[in-house]
Design a protein that fits this description.
Blueprint lengths: L5 E5 L6 H11 L1 E2 L1 H7 L11 E9 L8 E2 L1 H9 L11 H7 L8 E4 L8 E7 L2 E7 L7 E2 L3 E5 L1
Parallel strand pairs: 2-7, 5-9
Antiparallel strand pairs: 1-3, 3-9, 4-8, 5-6, 6-7
Length: 150
């Protein structure tokens, strides 16, 4: 049902989160909250070559009406064979998706880190990787777009 939107090949391997942060900030703008997330011990970093098939989907296509928590989003995606988006992929997607329309925000379907997820954005200041905690109650709308992997 869902088609691969982008194939991302990760060839990098990072020994530390600090080393990964240097890579990420070299790809694009990374805001200060994202930098803090990356430096956490529980932030996963890539460890070698691997290819990822990235899918993007509006939550409504997953059968979500209204709003949903991240657990609900990951569960709904799983019913379609979609898997959690590895957070370390966000700068790779940002680097590859140069045709992103101004104002578009792609949320990463991932386990929360410090109650936030990563986002791939294009806004008036340019391209960046940001973060979001959803609405005030930690949910996202059915019209929001999310990135998953197959």
């Amino acid at each position: 049902m869902f088609e691969v939107w982008k194939k991302i090949v990760v060839v990098d391997s990072f020994a530390t989160n600090e080393e990964y942060l240097r890579f990420a900030t070299g790809c694009c703008e990374v805001n200060s909250r994202v930098k803090k997330m990356i430096l956490r011990n529980d932030f996963p970093i890539s460890n070698g070559k691997k290819e990822f098939s990235v899918v993007r989907a509006h939550l409504s296509l997953l059968g979500i009406e209204g709003v949903a928590s991240m657990d609900g989003i990951l569960s709904a995606g799983g019913k379609f064979g979609l898997k959690e988006f590895p957070p370390f992929l966000a700068p790779y997607v940002r680097r590859e998706y140069q045709e992103q329309k101004n104002g578009e925000c792609l949320n990463c379907a991932m386990n929360l880190i410090d109650k936030k997820i990563l986002t791939v954005n294009h806004h008036k200041a340019g391209f960046c990787v940001g973060c979001s905690s959803g609405n005030s109650n930690g949910t996202w709308h059915s019209a929001d777009q999310f990135l998953f992997v197959l």
